[in-house]
Structure formats: C-alpha cells, structure tokens
Amino acid sequence: MSGHLTSRKIVRNVGLTLVNQFLAQGYALVRILSALKIKPSNYYNWRHWQPSRQEKRRESLKPYILDVWKTFKFYGYRRIAAYSQQTDGSKVSEYMTLKLMRELGIKSRMQKRYRKPKTVVTVNQKPNLIRHLHDLSGVWQTDITYIQLTNHKWVYLATVLDPEKRKVLGYKIGDTMTAELATSALQMALDKHRKPLIIHSDMGSQYTSAEFNIKCQNYGLKHSYSLKGHPYDNGRMEAFHSILKREEVYLKAYETLTQVQAAIGWYINFYNRNRISNVA
Questions:
Q1: Residue 103: what pLDDT?
Q2: pTM confidence score
C-alpha cells in the first residue's frame, strides 16, 4: 500500500510541476492538460490535495531518522527503531523505520576489511581453562588487533573484555605490538575493576611472554589460552574487535596514532554506555 501511495505522490508532484512550467510560459491550461493527457479532475484534485495525518507523520519522522543515521551510520533499521524507543521524542516501529530509510535512500554502512599481517605461533600449546565453561563470570578475555593508518603503517590495540557483561575493562594503543602493550591493557583493567579468576588469550608471543605471565602471577590470575587455529575460543573478544572495526575503524581514515587513540577512546565509551546491541 505504501508503495502505491509513493507512486501516486510522484505522479502528482511531477504532473503539477510540468503543468506549472507550461502555465508560466503562457500556454492555456486546457491545451496543457490535453497535451499531457491529464484529466482536468485529476489536475484539480492534485491542486487541492492535503496530506493525511499518517502522511504528515511519515514526513515529520524523516528528519529524525536521518539525524540518527548521520550520528550512527552503522545502525540499521532495527537499531534505529530501538534507539527511538529508548530516547525521548518520536517512537518509531521497525517496519516504519525500514520504509522511511528506503525512501530516504539510506542504509547501514559497513565497509570491507583490510588484510592484516599473518602471525605464526612458535610455542607449544598451553592449557585452555575455559573451553568447557558455561559460566564466564570469573573470566576476562584479551586480544590484540591491527588498525591501519592512511600511510599504510599499523598501530595496535590491546583490549581486555568482560565476556559475561560484554564490557571493555581496559585497553592500550601503541605503534608496536609488544608484551608491554598487552600488559598495560591488563593493568588498566586491574586498576579499575575487581580481578577475575582467569585471564584468557590466544597463543601470541605477547601473551606467552614472561612479562605478561609475571603480571598474571603477581595478581594470582590463572592464564588460559585458546587452542592454535581456534580463535572462537576467544569468541566474544574477537566479536568486539570485529564490531569496533565495522562501526568505527573501517568508516574512518586515521593519519596519526593520536587520532586513533581519540577515536577508539570515544568508541569504547560509547560501546560500554550507549550502544544499542542486537547480539554482541
């Protein structure tokens, strides 16, 4: 029904525009309508048309939908509708949001990922303590991800996540991927939150390093490791980095480490406090 209404609106607007253009050039109305094969009754209906309450509401919602999308371009219609339900002002259903986004010609922006350098694990497999755990309330997960600058150099983000609450507890960004980077992110989390029973990571050299494991021992943390070639063992941590890249990193062009630090700091605060989530 809405598609039919939209097509009628297009015909009305185009027809009136053409008639008015010819009238402005001095042509008689009767000749114009005859040439354009427009019934006089249709023309006068167009001239005196008034939008219905539903159409007025649809038009009034469009600036709101557009403003939310401009702020969160990675939001699709479901999360924009959810956002409207959680904030003051207009409440918009998922169906209406989808329709209005189509009329506005907007949709969630997701960019393709870039290729990161491959890493090789050279140490023997260490124990995975969480593989069969169903309750992750005493577990933190940590990992390092790559972010590329416009000059194609890499910077690195180490993150510590509470997988049960899906909150970032600590992070560190640097231009070298070192044990100090991984350890600093863990220290930030330990300084601000009650320590867990287990810290889980992959088998990367930063996490198998003496520096990182001494830090774990000093705080009485058990260190658990993903199996080689099984990144889903650290699934919620991997999911956060994937979301971060889709919703922030791949939509921006960073020239400096400082720009990355500012952007990631903003996003993590947004993720922890305000982000509307369907799953992760």
A1: 83
A2: 0.65
